[in-house]
Design a protein that fits this description.
With about 110 residues, the chain is α/β, with parallel strands linked by helices. It is built from 4 helices and 6 strands. It has a 3-stranded mixed sheet with strand order 1-2-3. A 3-stranded parallel sheet has the order 4-5-6, with no helix packed on it. The radius of gyration is 15 Å and the shape is globular.
Length: about 110
């Protein structure tokens, strides 16, 4: 079966609401830290460039699972490496120096 998951470095209240409104199956996000129920303004977990571990931990994704990636962020290299297809939203020219040439045959640019 197919699941649509949001993997974002945005903070968890934003990711939760996006997941609810878009009726996705779940999400992983950067998490705000709380002390005695009050937000400290710090991150407990930052997913910038580190989304795969959270997807595997929280949603049971495995290395051999088929994944299609839609992203506007060239920091998602951990996901680029595992995706069967990558749909990149934005300028590929700026990202060519960051993204390994080994992944380019899987990348399609979306305007």
């Amino acid at each position: 079966s197919c699941r649509v998951l949001l993997a974002t470095a945005s903070i968890d209240p934003v990711a939760y609401e996006m997941t609810r409104v878009l009726q996705l199956h779940g999400f992983v996000s950067s998490r705000l830290a709380y002390r005695a129920g009050v937000c400290t303004g710090r991150l407990e977990e930052d997913l910038l460039g580190n989304k795969w571990q959270a997807l595997a931990r929280d949603h049971g994704l495995r290395e051999n699972d088929e994944m299609f990636l839609y992203t506007d962020n060239d920091d998602d290299l951990d996901l680029f490496a595992r995706a069967k297809r990558v749909y990149f939203i934005g300028s590929l020219e700026r990202s060519r120096s960051v993204i390994s040439p080994a992944y380019w045959d899987r990348v399609t640019r979306i305007q």
